Amino acid sequence: MAFLLLTPVDVIIDSREDSKHPDFKKILNMRGLRTAVQPLPAGDFLLLAPPDKQPILVERKSVDDLANSIRDNRIWDQSKLLREAAEKDGYQPLIVVEGWIGSLEKYRGWRIQSVLRILDTLMLDFGIPVLNTPNPEATIEWIVAKSKSLGETKDKKILRMRVEKKPMELNERILYVVEGLAGPTLARRLLAYFKTIRNIANASISDLLKVEGIGEKRAQEIYAVLNTPWREM
To answer: Which residues form the ERCC4 domain (predicted)?
Structure first.
């Protein structure tokens, strides 16, 4: 599916984000930005730019959203989709996390170093910068300031938004499956060591521990995912 923006705008708001937070569009308009609501292939906001600058595709998460996506391992699929959507059209991907990250340690008992390791994986391995803001109001203030810094509305590109998905090649599909088990870095190490998904599935915990970076807890998690019978919800 494709659509064409007929007039220049500063910010495109994803239609799902707009349905959940319609006040965002109202505030951005009041602050002098021109907005459009359209379905985005990934992310919540697209900050447009003149031809000599790079548009920014923004995924917005509260700290609780971040925690939930880490807990059920969706963070890697979501980030990969954001990165691929951005690369496809020449955007800069960005994840904005709203709230105090330290609350995950204080109120959920998570080790802060584990949370920071996930964030540094997003930045260093996925190439997606992470911006931490204190609250949604601050995020909106940043969008206003950043959008204005990208130039005048009239100079911003009228973009043809492409949302069709290119089928993954077999090698990409293999990596995609294993990334769901261990994230991008460990997935490559697992495949380099075991060669096939079947071999990973047949590996014992002691076999998994032979891979660099796989500790006892992670080995047990991977083994459990691959060997626990599925129950219909």
So the answer is: 10-101
Terminal CA-CA length for the chain = 33
**Half-sphere exposure in the Cβ direction for 137 (13 Å, CA):** 0
Which residue shows structure tokens 């031809």?
A: 51
The CA-CA-CA angle for residues 207, 208, 212, to 5°, reads: 115
Query: Band of the pLDDT at 166, cuts 50, 70, 90?
Result: low
Neighbours of 9 (CB within 10 A): 21
Phi, psi of 214 (to 5 degrees): -95, 110
Give the pair of three-digit tokens for residue 181. Answer: 């088990």
Q: Name the nearest CA neighbour of 163 among 9, 31, 16, 23.
A: 16
Containing 160, the helix (H) or strand (E) segment is: strand 160-162
Check the CA dihedral 123-126-128-131 and report its sign. negative
Could you give all domains of the chain from N- to C-terminal order, each with its CATH number? 2-162 (3.40.50.10130), 170-227 (1.10.150.20)
What is the mean pLDDT of the segment spanning 33-59? 92
